[in-house]
Amino acid sequence: MHVRKQLLSLRATQQKTLPNMIGGPVFAQSTHRLLAGVALSALLLVPSLAAAQEKSSFSDGNGETPIYFTADELIFEQNESFVIARGSVEIIRDNRVLTADEVTFDRKANVATAKGNVTLTQEDGNVLFADQFELTGDLREGFAERLRVLLDDDSRLASASGERYDGEVTVLNRAVYSPCDLCEEDPEAPPLWQLRADRVVHDGVAKDLIYRDATIEFFGVPIFYTPYFAHPDPTVFQRTGLLSSSFGSDSDLGTFVTAEYYIGIDENTDATLNTIITTDLGPALGGEFRKRFSFGDLEIAGSISNADRQEGVGANRRTVDDSFRGHLKGTGRFDLTNNWRTGLDLDITSDDTYLREFNISDEDILENRLYTEYFKRRDYANIEAFYFEDIRPGVMEDEPLVIPSAEWNLLGDPGAMLGGRWSADLGLRSMTRSSGVDSTRVSGEAGWRRRMISDTGLVADMDLSLRADAYFANDLYSDPNIISSDNNDTDTRILPQAQLTLGYPMVRNAWGFRQTIEPMVSLIASPEIDDHQNDLPNEDSTTIEFDFSNLFSDNRFPGEDRLESGTRVVYGARFAMENDAGIGKLFLGQSYRFSDDAVLPQNSGLEDRSSDIVGGLRMSAHGYADVNYLFRFDGTDFGSGRHEVSFNGGIPELYLGGTYLFSEGIQATDIVDDREQLFLTASSQFDDNWVAGGFHRRDLGAEAGSLQTGLFLTYQDECFVFSVQASRDFTLRDGIEEGDSIFFRFALKNLGEFQTPSFGLDFLRDDP
User: Fold this and answer.
1) Whose CB has fewer CB within 10 Å in the chain, the N or C terminal residue?
2) How much is the pTM?
3) Are 627 and 687 found together in one domain?
4) Exposure of 687 in the CB half-sphere (CA atoms within 13 A)
5) Spatial CB neighbours of 767, under 8 Å, sequence gap ≥ 6
6) Residue 301: closest CA among 276, 275, 330, 326
7) Domains in the chain: how many in total?
């Protein structure tokens, strides 16, 4: 029999017999009353309907699942066929919990009627609320008036009436769904948005919420109608289906529309298929695949298109016919054993402009890598292969293939050797080009380090090292920066080095601050090998950036193809003041070299015997403001070499930030021109849910002008997100138009989102 008909029939029967059930002289003699306020727990075994008709007392003879009662008062009537529980009633069966002010249980019909503040907590964590609930004895089926459902993620369903089938399916009539919180001042007011439907089915097996004749409302106003709508319930981890679509306009793509389809393969594997159709460049197809193994993970993405390619800037732009364009990007990490790991990084594209044209990536250098690594305690080893792709416009340099690149690092235990720690490093790097210098470097280095702290607080660090390199190079004449008498050459380099660093930190508490002063001095000594290095290939030390972070380093080049040598002294001091309210730090330092060094480039700050003065300043008021200033200036005339100031701070109503950078060009490196830029941001959370702001980047150098400007506005609460960001990119790139764009995002919790990744902003252009 249909459960609702069964329950309605039972309710009608109970109403007819109610006068005889209460107060009759016959039944009054068999009534057992317990004093109010006494908490009881009774184990009631629910027999089948036939068994109940045969027995008038509680029995566990049929082995049914027990029901646990807790109530302030229990009343047994009609030869114990009816059980009435009153006051803080709680009933537990099969991980389902029913609470109410009063519950009447008909043992013969196997039906319970709950009244007053009724809640039913289900096995999946969802909670049902009702004014009155009529349920079967196992709490799996029932009928309720004014049924409300609290889902696992605090989303809510409310209905005029509802039914529960087989403990898995809940049907709500004239229902409303919303994940939004109700207004605290006016709980009866409609939420920000809600989905109203004539009928809502929550299928606990399929984990679906299905709506019939549904309307989406904002603040109670209907916006959109659909005869059918469905989405996974909040417990679903993944589900195959169509993702959000978008459309827009772009200076390179024209008008476009995108679509994505998600495929949930299993709990560890999924994929996404996507497409974009454009008016100017035609269609492009793409996809992603993700797989997580017990021993690692793999992720691959790619796209293909037959769009024509643009070359040139402005009036010089021209179209180049291409039959195939695309990209492929992936990462993989795989544990072979507890000590060995292998992996790959993949990033390739068909041409220099494809990634930017289709808004896939703004990377300039693409790195491809295969590697295997070994870890054991303090030891590390790897063998790698690299392939680089430089997609910067106008850069014609032939990128090398690096295969193999290997290293092995060993580190001894502290104090294991003469009170210090030993280290040993081996390295191999081989690079080949289709045209240009081919080279192989074999390296080895042994080192020893010990730290000593005296009773007076003096800290002394002693470092000893011996490094040896062997180079095998071909086509040296093709590189004008290499001074060599032979086109093909084999050369070696040996550098023993010693470094002693002394520091004397002094700390005191005064004026409400913890104050620290630490003067430092270091002596670094090695033979002169600078002239000998000019005929060696230079692959990893083509530039140098000198600041306080590498002032005390034994080699201030970023790589190992160029090494500093000779004898020099380094000196500096740290100052700090801090308390709970904030912190202030200052560092100043300089080095002096006792001989000239031919390998250090001009304008690097290290070309003279006395280096530039470098330092850093930080001032921070915790939670309010933070300022960092890095500087390098000439110690003789205080000429600027490098200045970088970054700041951020404020309150939520007005928060400001920015960065200023000036860096002098360094001769014979990759960066020969001066750089000067300014970047500013501002934001305001002018309401609990609203944030607005903007940003601007400007070139202050020889070709001064704006680089990028943008504005944004965002609203976000527990169930709804809306944001808009407009920006203009003033940078001219080969084959790429200046980028004016607007980005919209519109998201409804649990239903999905709509966004326009790039919508044309011709009205923001300065030119007519």
Assistant:
1) C
2) 0.73
3) no
4) 8
5) none
6) 330
7) 3
